[in-house]
């Protein structure tokens, strides 16, 4: 099966979907409203399921070569005491891969490099999809339209196409948290590949990249729309008494590099990921909180599953039905688990609740954290009868 596909959104999920669709024999156009596909963003952790999806799509080797395995780390209290330690080697034995850290820009570039430049249309804002012809939907842009046999809505948490397809859905909701993040301006030595520190209504974490720089993030309980005149200065004061290397990571950051976003999610699950020949993917389908590090991994799973379904099913209708049946239950389960993890982790603010959580973490068996990661990261790509690059 093959045809013309339009992917709306040039982020990680959209580019991955385009790579998979091309391998399944489809002609693909990726439409991105930004004037350039800039390599922006901070860092990302990829679990085994995300790496397996990238292997399936043929770009795993390039991503692994640019990433840094996360073997040492865990969760700490603000004064530095370890609550849990992650055994990256045990995770590798269980899943065949440790978690890896990579700049989002590098992952984005690896996916974009796997596509011919002519299939990328930037600076084009999609207004809606005209589905008057059930077999040839039309993606309407500013002043023109693109006909296709399939439309992939990968246009993010604020998906305009999702709002059109499900007008009664409430859309994304504020999670109760806001996140600030950046990559250090030079290499640092935080003494562990990654770490999370949980305080009262606050979290600080870091991952180290292959070039020695580190990405850090600070998550704070806050109402939507809160912004700071001096974000970096605010964080330096907020975390001044927290353990090393947190002050050092902030000191190694340029003020202009700090990104600030509210954390939003689709609390109300969608009733379907497909409507006719339009399919939702990534944050457009199942935006989740970052507490399990699974947002991008689930989008990569979506892309691999969609490509395999379109390659293996006799019709577009049966392929999209298979995609919905395989992806909606799993991704929505992971989204619920991420929400629970946030409520029991960073979002806890009452001193008694925080103390009880910390005690439970200290008393947990050494393998409990590995099993918790495996629960969501142990995913096997669908079968696809064609050579796949390792």
Instruction: Write the CATH homologous superfamily of the domain at 4-70 and 97-170 and 265-345.
Output: FAD/NAD(P)-binding domain
Strand arrangement within the widest β-sheet reads: 6-5-14-15-16-13-17
| Share of residues in strands | 15-25%
Biggest sheet architecture: 7 strands, mixed
Radius of gyration computed on alpha carbons: 21 Å
Q: Which regions have little confidence, pLDDT < 50, spanning 5+ residues?
A: none
Give the CATH architecture of the domain at 4-70 and 97-170 and 265-345: 3-Layer(bba) Sandwich
Mean pLDDT across the residues is 94
Q: N- to C-terminal separation?
A: 24 Å
The top level CATH class name of the domain at 4-70 and 97-170 and 265-345: Alpha Beta
The quaternary structure here is single chain
Fraction of residues in helix: 25-40%
* Structure summary, number of beta strands: 19
Category by helix and strand content: alpha/beta
Q: Which of globular, elongated, flat, extended, rod-shaped describes the shape? A: globular
Number of helices: 13
Q: Which topology of the domain at 4-70 and 97-170 and 265-345 does CATH recognise? A: FAD/NAD(P)-binding domain
């Amino acid at each position: 099966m093959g045809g013309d596909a339009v992917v709306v959104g040039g982020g990680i999920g959209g580019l991955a979907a385009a790579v998979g669709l091309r391998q399944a024999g489809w002609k693909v156009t990726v439409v991105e409203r930004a004037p350039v596909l800039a390599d922006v963003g901070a860092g990302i952790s990829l679990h085994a399921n995300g790496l397996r999806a990238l292997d399936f799509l043929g770009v795993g080797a390039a991503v692994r070569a640019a990433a840094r395995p996360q073997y040492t780390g865990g969760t700490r209290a603000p004064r530095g005491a370890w609550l849990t330690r992650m055994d990256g080697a045990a995770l590798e034995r269980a899943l065949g891969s440790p978690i890896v850290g990579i700049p989002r820009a590098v992952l984005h570039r690896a996916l974009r490099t796997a596509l011919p430049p002519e299939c990328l249309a930037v600076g084009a804002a999609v207004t809606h999809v005209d589905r008057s012809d059930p077999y040839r939907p039309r993606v309407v842009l500013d002043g023109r339209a693109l006909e296709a046999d399939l439309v992939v809505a990968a246009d993010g948490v604020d998906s305009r196409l999702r709002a059109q397809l499900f007008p009664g859905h409430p859309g994304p909701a504020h999670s109760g948290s806001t996140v600030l993040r950046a990559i250090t301006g030079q290499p640092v030595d935080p003494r562990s590949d990654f770490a999370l520190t949980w305080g009262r209504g606050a979290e600080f974490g870091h991952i180290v990249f292959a070039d020695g720089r580190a990405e850090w993030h600070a998550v704070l309980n806050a109402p939507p729309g809160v912004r700071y005149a001096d974000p970096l200065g605010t964080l330096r004061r907020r975390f001044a008494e927290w353990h090393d290397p947190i002050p050092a990571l902030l000191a190694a950051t340029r003020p202009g590099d700090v990104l600030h976003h509210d954390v939003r999610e689709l609390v109300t699950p969608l009733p379907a990921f497909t409507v006719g020949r339009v399919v939702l993917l990534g944050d457009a389908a199942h935006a989740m909180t970052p507490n399990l590090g699974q947002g991008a991994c689930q989008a990569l799973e979506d892309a691999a599953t969609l490509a395999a379904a379109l390659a293996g099913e006799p019709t577009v209708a049966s392929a999209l039905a298979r995609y919905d049946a395989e992806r909606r239950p799993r991704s929505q389960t992971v989204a619920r688990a991420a929400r629970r993890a946030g409520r029991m982790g960073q979002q806890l603010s009452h001193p008694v609740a925080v103390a009880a959580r910390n005690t439970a973490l200290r008393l947990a068996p050494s393998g409990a954290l590995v099993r918790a990661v495996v629960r969501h990261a142990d995913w096997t790509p669908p079968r696809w009868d064609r050579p796949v690059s390792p």
